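anyone seen this seq b4? input:
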Amino acid sequence: MSHALRRLGALPLLLACAAAVHAQTPPAAAPATEGYPNRTVTIVVPFPAGGGTDLGARLLAQKLAQKWGQGVVVDNRAGAAGLVGAEMVAKAKPDGYTLLIGNVGTQSINPSLYKKMPYDTDRAFAPVSLVAELPFVMMVGPSVTAKNVKEFVALAKASPDKLMFASSGSGGSPHLTGEIFAAAAGVRMTHVPYKGGTPAMTDLMGGHVDVLFASILESASYIKAGKLRGLAVTGSARSPTLPDVPTLAEAGVPNAESGSWIGLLAPAGTPQPIVDKLAADVKSVLSVAETRQTLVEQGAVPRGTGPAELKALIDTDRARYGRVIRDKNIGVD
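predicted toks r here
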């Protein structure tokens, strides 16, 4: 038999072998983002409804739901300065369907503030995107004669420890913002912690305390109504909500920028393609003028970044606030 005929005779056997190999080869895995999301996504807010973190989360949920054509629900799990809700997400299945709206407290302050954490903050979460920055405003009540930061600093220096600054709770970002201001201005004040921002605001208006650092969202209506006097905002730029209120740097106290922010995080182990899709979609919805304007009206500065930028901010703020916590020996058991 010729070589050509032998090759032709072997052809059916070769084809059969090739077919068998093909049948045993598993199909290529579908991309992790294929069809995502195809069911309801839950965004956990580790704080009560109504605050800046919650309002930002609800706006983001609404816009993502419209973009995806899927339900996005906000689940408020408040408790222990955000630890309860954050722990829920840290232990959730890393599939992109349970997410966290964290803030400077949950991600940057708590690891230094609490001696024991129910999870390792660095290993428990995958940063997704910085959603918005929430600068604070420095306010005084009607009993304080200072009309600006310079006059307030003069009052504080004339009577060390006499002026009382309120906060929504020991170790929170409003408290630490007050400590940062005091150090930058070279003054000493007495800290008065409250159980929440509302009673602190009430006592400020009543003249029981002298100064409070709180979110612009919580404070703008009182300032515009003349019930409180806004001396400065703590961000790097003036707020469109309070355009006549200078920054601390403009008011003569540089290096005192502070405040809060909100960011979207997923459980660690979430596939990177899903994390990247989430970041891109957050950036997309935050680029819409209507969405940005709503956030600005809430006293926020819209962002929309990638995972690396949020991770860098978490680390920077952890180092900065950690120094204040150690210097002032602030802690929560």
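Residues 33 and 99 are 16 Å apart (CA to CA). Residues 3-24 form the longest helix (22 residues). kinda curious what u guys think
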